[in-house]
Amino acid sequence: MNLTPIEREKAHPTPITYVKIASILVLLTALEVAIFYVESLESILIPLFLVLSAVKFVLVAMFYMHLKFDSRIFSGFFITGLLLATAVIVALMALFDVFARTPTLDQPTVESVESKEPATSETILSSDLKSDSVPKTGPAIFEDKACGACHAVEGLSTGSIGPSLDGIAIRAADRKPGLGSEAYLRESIENPSVFLVEDYLPLMPPTIRDSLTDEQFESLIKFLMTLK
To answer: Which tens digit of pLDDT belongs to each residue from 133-188?
Structure first.
C-alpha cells in the first residue's frame, strides 16, 4: 500500500535507527575483511563477497536513499536492476573462469624451476604435470595459496588487487634501497606491510609466511625469481 507524502514523512526512521544501520554496515565490512584471511573459505570467497556486498547495498539504498519509504514501484525497479546486474557479473566471472581454483594449463616440473638458467613463466607453465609424490613447485604453491587472486602473472593468473608480478625479479631490485631482488621478495612475504607499492593497500595476509614450510617458501621464491 502506497503512503501519502505526509505519511511517508512520518514513517522516516529516527536518528537512532540510522546509527543502528551504520553499525550493521560496519560489522558487515569487518566480516568481509575477516573472511578474506580464512583459508577454508577460499573456494567460496567470491560468492560470499557478492552476497555481503548486495546486503550492504540494499541497506544503504533502503534507508540512506529513503527507498524504503518511497513508492513500491521504485523498490521494484531497484531490486530488478540489482538482480540483473548481479546475474551479469556472475555470468561474466564464470565465463572467464574466475571461480576456477586450478589453471587449465599444465603444471611445471621441478627441473624447470630449479634449472641453472632462469626459466620464463611461459616455459614453466608449458612443463609436464608433476607426480603427486614430488614436492609442490613454486607455481603450484602460488596457486594453492590463492596468490593469483590478487597478483597477475602472465599465463597463470589475472589478479589486480595487488601489484602485477610480471618482471618482478628485475623490478624488485629497485623497489627498496639496500635490498636486492631476492631479499626484497623474501621481506615482502615475511613482512608484507614493511614496504607498500604506491597506489596499493596493505591487503596481503601477514600470516602467509607461517602457512608455508621452509621448503615451500624457498620454492616460491625461486619461482618468483624466474619472472623476468
So the answer is: 445 788 888 888 888 888 999 888 888 888 889 998 898 888 888 888 899 899 88
CA angle 215, 219, 225 (to 5 degrees): 145
For the entire predicted model, the pTM comes to 0.41
Report residue 169 as a C-alpha cell. Answer: 625479479
Please state the domain extents for the chain.
5-95, 110-224
Is the backbone of residue 222 left (phi > 0), alpha (psi -120 to 50) or beta?
Answer: alpha
pLDDT tens column, 95-114: 766 555 444 444 444 444 44
Note the CATH number of domain 110-224: 1.10.760.10
- Nearest to residue 165, comparing CAs of 155, 152, 156, 177? 152
